Amino acid sequence: MVKELIASGIEILTVISTALIGLLLLLFILKFVFRKDTDLYKDIVHFLQDHYLIIGFIVSLVATLGSLFYSDIMGYNPCKLCWYQRIFMYPQVILFGIALKTKRKSIIANSMWLSGFGFLIAAYHYLIQIGVMTGGCDVVGYSAKCSEFFSLAYGFVTIPFMALIAFAILLIIGYGKLRDCKARGVR
Fold it and tell me: Is the CATH number of domain 2-184 1.20.1070?
């Protein structure tokens, strides 16, 4: 019962995050269509830039703990592509944690590279799961098939989709922070 509640909470968090990303994209598109910054857009951008390290730490930590929850508590064996996604997410908890402690923002490029590769793998994995693509992802040892569904919430939220959203958030806030640093001449 408790495990299912936690899994449901993670799924709801993913849906909320997806909606927030959609809102950010809509604001971004409106900014370029009308060539005008709204106060809301500026406030959101400044908030994300000012809180880059803590948001990055929280997103990577929740993604890591969620991944471990599904494998170690729910008993879902990660597939080969899930392992690759973990490789690109797990180190980010350490990167952001150290950066928070030392107040260094020099991790932006590292996080964006890790998130970019993770995003591509998660997108490929999600497309395999929903049947848009076919892909060879053989079962290795005790791992699951990459096309197997362990969780499907709201008709579209799967575990690879959750990873996709986490990587997307890290890419979006990283891009915003990178632009902020370049505008201020900070390395």
Answer: no
